[in-house]
């Protein structure tokens, strides 16, 4: 694996995260102010329902990436078979989802959720547009999978940047013109269409679709064989990931949905940066001869996990310490006050979730998607058992705790993936780094809250010092090995 090439792909993937993140940071407070907390909650619910419809993906995205990565150089005709079958499946799934959302729009917009009466009519129209958005998103997902399978991370990322940027511009124009929910959805749809056209034209230059003969039925069976485990993982992830917000909308209020979703989406967006860096290992690992390079992959795996702890832990601590202040500066003091009780809980939950990114990539690369589906189902079961009593009696705080409790399975997923694939006890292997991080984190949390917060020179900006000191201190204490440090320097500095 060429470390310079890996770095370039990671930078492209991070760039594809950075621009949409800036758009998200700028657009969210504008939408909350223009639409109101209730209107923003409706948009959130539409996105949640669209997210649930993604279960119709059936895990084909990951299957397309894996099989295109394996065949696109050695067997172009087989690659074409996977591409045509994949495109057909995505088109069918997208059409089914679009029709379903259109038919259920009236029920979703008026009966299921506690949507204010003044917003119900427009909510129904917005849900219908959400169905068309879903169809186009599924087609875009197919082209994203084939591009990544071809090791071309630039195509989906640049297309995504164009789509999100244009949608944001159109949303701002629509809001300034006085349009509300339907205007936001139309703006999103126009940006999606333009981004999809660019994606299709670009991919036709890289992997032009052409008719080939052959055993399409066998290809379909192979896709289903791999994707069935991903499907169950995706289904379980959809249920456990967003159902608390839906329950909040039906048992509590649309406002609580917005109060939950904004910090949760911010945490999800932050953790997505690391996920995008780690995604570059998927086609690389899938294409490697694992019988020869198993030891090398294991060494990279342990190093990346160790480096990930070094990078993500201080940010989790920073959010725990000053999350409400950040939210107040971003949205408003009143919004931050209402959501302050859940910020730390959400931060810890997404920290645990982010630690599974690399194990999931490795499990898929090594053809063990059943590990992912197993723990996704465990996560779903925990969510189903805890969600009603916690959300019913504790509302917003209860929904956050459902998320955290469901993410505890991440610790077992990391352990079993490491043991099954590499034959190591990852917690024993990383015992020294884990101990150092635990001690330093505890010391900083206690010192900040008990001493610094009550001092005369206290300012929320002090958390920046924590972000700087933490990695320096933990590295000095030996939280990373010489190999880890060498690999980190290469990723940051090498360009060959």
Fill in the keyword field for this structure.
0% strand, mainly alpha, 18 helices, 496 residues, single chain
Description of the molecule:
- With 496 residues, the protein is mainly α.
- It has one domain.
- Helix content is 86%, strand content 0%.
- The protein is built from 18 helices and no strands.
- The chain has helices spanning 3-53, 60-71, 76-112, 117-149, 154-176, 181-206, 216-251, 254-279, 281-287, 290-330, 333-354, 357-365, 369-407, 409-422, 426-429, 431-450, 462-476, 482-493.
- Helix 4 runs parallel beside helix 6, helix 5 runs antiparallel to helix 6 (181-206) and helix 16 runs antiparallel to helix 17.
- The longest helix has 51 residues, at 3-53.
- The radius of gyration is 23 Å and the shape is globular.
- The protein starts with a helix and ends with a helix.
- The mean pLDDT is 85.
Quick overview of this protein structure:
The protein has helices at 3-53, 60-71, 76-112, 117-149, 154-176, 181-206, 216-251, 254-279, 281-287, 290-330, 333-354, 357-365, 369-407, 409-422, 426-429, 431-450, 462-476, 482-493.
Shape descriptor: globular
**Cα distance spanning the termini:** 13 Å
Task: Assign a percent range to the helix content.
Answer: over 70%
Task: Write down the Rg.
Answer: 23 Å
User: If helices are DSSP runs of H or I spanning 4 or more residues, what is the number of helices?
Assistant: 18
Number of strands: 0
